[in-house]
Amino acid sequence: MSEPLGCQSEAFGLPEDLHFLNCAYMGPLPNVTEEVGIQALRRKRVPVDIHAADFFDTSDELRRLFASLVGVADSRRVALIPGVSYGVAAAAKNLKVRRGQNVVLTQEQFPGNVHAWTRLAAESGAEARFATPPEGPGRGEAWNEALLACIDSGTAVVAVPHVHWTDGTRFDLVEVGRKCREVGAALVVDGTQSVGALPFDVGEVQPDALVVAGYKWLLGPYSVGMAYYGPRFDDGVPLEETWIGREKSEDFPKLVRYRDGYQPGALRYDVAERSNFALVPMSVASLKLIHGWKPERIQSYCAALTARALEEAASLGFSVEDPKWRAAHLFGLRMPAGIDLAVLKAALERGKVVASLRGSALRLSPNVYNDGGDMEALVQVLRETVS
After folding, report:
1. pLDDT of 359
2. Residue 124 has what pLDDT?
């Protein structure tokens, strides 16, 4: 059994008086990642220091780190993408949806995993179905039941998050994946709000695609993401016909001998200029840290960190989802009746507590850099709001 993880605030440069509980918005860069980025930028001063192998080696290292993190044996099934909508668009381009079928989504999921599917459904004459949660106790469990009920013999694609971005509701993707295989539907998962802080096993869930933005829980720079594409996409057509995605692209002198074949696995889906000589090394540095901390230890740390604060919040009339149906690193506090949001916002600003209002919840998303002082500051804000 792994040893419990301690606070890692020394690995970051956050101000001591700032209570940053908003990693779901954007993760702060670790110190080592920032330094790697600075050194990488300096390399471009003298371009001869960037060699042909640099177009491939660091990208492949990032693939290996991500593949290992999510339980993928062959890192060539990992594509490097600039964001979720790009990875989702590549999936939508290569999945067939017929008139009369349906595409299943969850209500209010992040638009990067919505617009491509609603367009595909409209153009195909299919139905876009949104699994809707009820209000009140048992919301997370009931939402999972509603999601499964939406999947039927007419379902072509299920495109859902692992953890909902507005309130941290956790979806049972093992069960969703089982039902998708039962009806022959493709499963496309947005892991942006989970991968890096919550264990995810591709072998267990068996998604057809897993798309993750790297600037939140992977603690990387903006514009670098990763996507796993399973066998369903092996013969697909990428969004871009890049030179580096073609076979033998490592042989620079022979690039003018155009080749029809692609690099193996999912490399055809890489974004153009995927070798970004500053951002990719930064992403590698951050993933190495996460491998050391381990997502299961991050979950345990966040659960222990927030336990007392959530008890105090409950005593003030706030409510939170049952732990079985939410993540420990991202969850929504639902307000007692009569809360003035303007008062809450002002109290957050005075207390230097950084969180987000999403939908009907105060979204809190702690990480390994937070400590008991951050929780005390949060509780003080809640007390001020209800007094």
Report:
1. 64
2. 97
Residues 322, 279 within the same domain:
no
Residues 147 and 278 in one domain: yes
End-to-end CA distance of the chain: 44
- Helix (H) or strand (E) holding 286, with range, is helix 279-293
Give the pLDDT score at 357. 84
Same domain for 328 and 222: no
| Residue 29 in domain | no
| Cα 306–chain centre separation | 21
Residue with tokens 């993408």: 81
What pTM did the predictor assign?
0.96
Distances (CA, A) of 60 to 64, 110, 266, 267, 299: 6, 29, 12, 10, 28
Order of strands across the sheet that contains 186-190? 78-81, 225-229, 209-213, 186-190, 155-161, 102-106, 127-131
Work out the burial of residue 143: count CB atoms within 10 Å of its CB; fewer than 13 is exposed, 13-18 middle, 19 or more buried: buried
Helices (H) and strands (E) in the chain, counts: 11, 12
Domain CATH for 314: 3.90.1150.10
Instruction: Work out the pLDDT band at 360, boundaries 50, 70, 90.
Output: low
pLDDT, tens digit, for every residue of 77-135?
999 999 999 999 999 999 999 999 999 999 999 999 999 999 999 999 999 999 999 88
**Domains identified in the chain, total number:** 2
Beta strand segments in 172-307, E? 186-190, 209-213, 225-229
Is the same domain home to 164 and 260? yes
**pLDDT bucket at 387, cuts 50 / 70 / 90:** confident
Domain boundaries, position 249:
39-292
Q: How far is CA 42 from the centre of its chain?
A: 30
